[in-house]
Amino acid sequence: MSLLTKNKTMLATAITVALSPLAIADDVADKEIEEIAVIAKKLSYANNTIDQNMIEQQAPISSVLAVMDNLPGININEGDAFGGDDWSTSITMRGFSIDGNQQQLGMTVDGIPNGGSNYGGGAKANRYLASENLLTVEVAQGTSDISSASLDALGGTFNFVSKDPDQVKSTTIAYTTGDHDAKRYFARHETGEILPNTFAYISYSDSSASRWSGEGSNGGFTNQHAEFKFVSELDNLILTGRISYDDVAEDNYNSVSIEQFNQTPDWDQLTWNWTGIPHFDQMFAEGWSTLRENTLAYLKFDYALSDVTTIEVTPYYHKNKGRGDWIPPYLVLAVDANGNPTNQGGTIAASYGFTDQNGTPLAPADGCTANFTWPWNSGPGLHPSCYADDAIPVMSYRHTHYQKERTGFTAKGQTTFGNHDITAGIWYEMAVRDEHRDWHKVIDARIYHHFDKTPYWTQYDNTFDTDTLKWYIQDTITMSDLTLNLGVQQYLVEVEKDDHYISANDVTVDSDSDVLFSVGALYQLNNTTELFAGYSENFAAIKDTVLERDASTLTDIEPETAENIDLGVRYFGEQLNLSATLYSIEFNDRITFIAPGSDTDGIDYTIGTNGTYVNVGGIESQGLELSASYQLTDAWEIYASYTMNDSEYVGNAPGFEKGQTVIDSVEDMWVLSTNYFVGNLRFGASAKYTGERGDAEDYIITDLNLGYHTEFEGNGINSVDIAFVVNNLLDEDYLSTGTGSGATYFIGAPRTSTLTFSVNF
Known about the structure:
- The protein is globular.
- The chain is 5% helix and 50% strand.
- It is mainly beta.
- The protein has a 22-stranded antiparallel β-barrel. A 5-stranded mixed beta sheet has the order 1-7-8-5-6, with no helix packed on it.
- It starts with a helix and ends with a strand.
- The longest helix is centred in the N-terminal third of the chain and has 17 residues, at 3-19.
């Protein structure tokens, strides 16, 4: 352990002791969930929550990420209607993104940090929470809640809140069936009171579906998910415990160019028939895979020291492990620094796609320049036409292995005296992430992609240790109709890389923030209208993925920062609720990956730890967010939102120029939805417009949901529910989101219908 790490541990302990006489539970008003989705909390920055209507617009088999898509400023894109592929999942908000290359938005579950949302070792909320167990999602656009525990919260945070157990004993069983072979079995048992003032539930689901693109051996996903939660009230102490387990195997979707989409808008260029020709079979869908297991557990102690002073301490543990797969159309020969063959580390000296009958690598025929560009340039000499008829094709099955363990705690205290409401807290975490990449020989590429379990080469093997300490304090001052929020926070982050093959690549980087300030004001104009204004300094630490690249000049890389200003108004009427926010954001020291030169137009399977990360200027964003709900009658509600966003690059770097619109950011979005209830029947419909993103055209997606719920008495069955959901009702062809490069995009999912039967007894 380094001296800095020891100092942080001592400081964490000291602050914990110092906080013990303070308060820490959220205040009662903070825990209440608004019935309307327009406003979640009365704060001095833009914030929203989803409501039950938004949850019902998505099928239970869908990812919990999808429920946020109708909120202003947010654009959710997933490879299919079920969120069955993390590789193609992205979230954008106010010019900030979560995608395969960027993690600029924070994400927590019940306030517990998710460990990052990146593909390699991260996990989004859908890995921790089933849709039936979701209470709400608290969204802080632009400005994060000062207590939020995240290293990615440059542009805001998403806090996914799980339901508490019911007080009545019951069991729910549900079955979902739908398009693309979709199936889901779900069961939840509410224990009722198992000990004095102690309630719990346990749930399990088994989900699967095929990829919508292609047929037969076109891949898909399978998912096993379990959760357990209990709440126990003991005098002045509320004890809450939760554990979730998720095991998923996903075959990915591929991104395509505009030209490829215009030719075939229902095909992502992956194949579903094994040909025995590696040049084509590298695109076999079942060879593009994501396998992940995630376990997250926490135990929250919420203690009231007095009527005005509380303390909350939550230790947690997270384990993530998994693999990412590709199938390169060749084998490689690796050598060490002395030019000798090696099976660990080193560099690639040669690659070959065919052998003779004895397994000896073959060179292409003299003068052969066969260079086929479908699906992309695989290099001269990799097509069978360059070899004799009896030549044997060879392939690799490339695995990238991910494993991560996090142990930490959050602590928050709150006390009130006079017109001051003081909140202070810390977040401390130790994370260890292992990543290595190995290459396996496909046993017989002419037959299928079955591979030798023993790798013939391990390309790299690295371990990353990240120690994080965040402290914060905020004073909320109430003066009649005016409320002021004054806060400071700081992140102390140390990232260490251990290269198990080349010790010269070992490095330690401190990624500490300055002391970050936030200030806000909320003015109650009258009983129905409030005005708010806020300024905050946001921060994202240098991530361990930056240390993966040997060429990154780490001494020259600065952490990313953002300055956010919100100005807004909220109106609460008997039938109408409105919210409007103007915002301005300056994002500095943006960290970007610069790929090494490549002789392919598509995937460079051999990239390893090459390439570099650099700071490339920043981004400036300005915009307007509007949302409204109107209760026409007791049974009929209308909701609408509109977003206008202008995000431009500041400074020049490879791939973009100063003044250019930020890749994949959306300039205009609007949503119109309605919900209607009559007796036991419910009906909902929504339409969302998403404007142009680069060369991708705008589109409108319409969803529909219909449900019937009936109660029973004295028959052993409490209730029965039937829910029918159609996503992309009009079967629109569209490109959803890009890969962050501006060159390729993922295809949006076609019309997808699901039907769910639920019984509670």
